[in-house]
Amino acid sequence: MGCDGGTIPKRHELVKGPKKVEKVDKDAELVAQWNYCTLSQEILRRPIVACELGRLYNKDAVIEFLLDKSSEKALGKATSHIKSIKNVTELRLSDNPAWEGDKGNTKGDKHDDLQRARFICPVVGLEMNGRHRFCFLRCCGCVFSERALKEIKAEVCHTCGAAFQEDDVIVLNGTKEDVETLKGRMEERRQKAKLGKNPQAHQKLRQGSPKKPASILERRKPAQLPKVQRQ
Ligand SMILES: [Zn+2]
């Protein structure tokens, strides 16, 4: 019951447990998902990004993929939802102080150790080793355990203070059901963007664009600007 009631499991509780043979495949899958780039299969290293479906990548691998679309054929449709670098979010990950894998001479093998993760939840300290659900916020890229997000119940990011909505929360390496939900939300978002039904995004675009300074717009269309709403 320890995991449900909000208590933080101790390290030995996480590490030990029945070691069964059939678990090996599952463990290998977890190690792959949480430690290796979905695209290049190389070990994840900063800058690390995640897509809207919650998969992890090295940013340089995504950039290479976008530059050379022909590689998409070889990889099937696994990453066809990434059309632009804007479709991925650079993650702000919290280092695990107990991680030693990057120190000294490492030739890959140590990364296969499920018992110690490179990153942790900055709020409750859970290790990001595939055994706990983790999420990131699309608005800022900060990464938390799902437990922390549920416990805090805030509308601003615990780490950087950015405001977020439920739509911004993306489960990392989630279940099939999670991915289906995320896919639905992604398609909805893209549809909205296409139809221009997101007035906030438009406003930001106009204000932030260096090519269209507000002064030019004002000079060109002075009569059409609403008088009342400019506060
Ligand atoms: Zn944040």
From TrEMBL:
Stretches the record annotates as Disordered: 187-231
Domain of life: Eukaryota
Gene Ontology terms: biological process: DNA replication termination
Pfam family, one: Rtf2
CC terms in the record's Gene Ontology section: nucleus
Subunit structure: Interacts with DDI2; probably also interacts with DDI1.
Family indicated by similarity: Belongs to the rtf2 family.
Summary of the function given for this chain in its UniProt record: Replication termination factor which is a component of the elongating replisome. Required for ATR pathway signaling upon DNA damage and has a positive activity during DNA replication. Might function to facilitate fork pausing at replication fork barriers like the rDNA. May be globally required to stimulate ATR signaling after the fork stalls or encounters a lesion. Interacts with nascent DNA.
Protein name per Swiss-Prot or TrEMBL: Replication termination factor 2
Organism the protein comes from: Panthera leo (Lion)
